[in-house]
């Protein structure tokens, strides 16, 4: 294989939300970066994600929020229906329709639209596709050395792993692997060319140990998900070895006939949008006490804090990471007159980790508990599941959790701050 040696200021592994947002944050403060993406094109998995106010604050700091808020409308309310008894509860997201809420209210966004919005702000040579990392070295003489599977060697001052749940960078740092939550999730996008006719409101359905959600993006597209408990992942893996239609068929079997609206959305699934897999998370104490940086090497997004999706904070927290990391690296860059000082960068990256560690651990914990409660106890993961516990959990869910959801969702709101201004270059 050809041995090509490249030199870069900052290298980001992974071209998902965290990687693209981090590259944009660095561009905004004048620092050039290279994103290594293993796929041969823009990587998009899953149909949509819901962005809460903390994500919109981060996107405002990145200078792109307006491009998405002009397309997607915020949710005002939603409903949760217990399929077994037909009882429906209302969820209020906000009663304030002021300008700030309209700009930062929770709203669904096509994942591809978010990726493309971030990507179009970056120089065309920012992403190197078909780039798989084989190994990482840290040396005193040459800084960080990255070896790619195609024989390319890259020297860099800073390495940021945004390479997902099974991060190679996190593994190199010695962070403990994520663990199985005891639940699986299927996600997809229902497409109705003639219009779906649904209100612009998220709806959830609880039935037979499953939690199903449908979230309209616009007049034609509806994001949907299903989470359900499963104690043996290997058996579930057999389900998806064939055509995506098998996934669709299996999901339809889990939905009661009384929930026809759910069946309709699943039947309209766009096959390429279907994703399936076990829900994993990192124990919060592994994040609190583990080593998530080494000099100028660190991680962000799912590589740092994989969590269950029950508070809708995976993508939101990744955007927070990007701004906070960009702020710290930008502070060092500006302070050193447009240079990246190795010693100063180590201090700033250590400060980034300190700032994000407790925030992320709290989100992991809150997401897990939220999922456990909404699933009615479930008896999965790290929390036991006696019948009494399940009964009490369902009471907590039905009588307290959803009624106070608007207040509870406020717990995840966070202001990640702004990016520093100073030495910037439109050429970066």
TrEMBL record:
Record Pfam families: FAD_binding_3 (PF01494)
Source organism per UniProt: Papaver atlanticum
Keywords assigned by UniProt, alphabetized: Monooxygenase, Oxidoreductase
Keyword ATP-binding belongs to the record: no
Organism superkingdom: Eukaryota
Protein name per Swiss-Prot or TrEMBL: FAD-binding domain-containing protein
Family classification: Belongs to the 3-hydroxybenzoate 6-hydroxylase family.
InterPro entries: FAD-bd (IPR002938), FAD/NAD-bd_sf (IPR036188), MOase (IPR044560)
Keyword set includes Protein transport: no
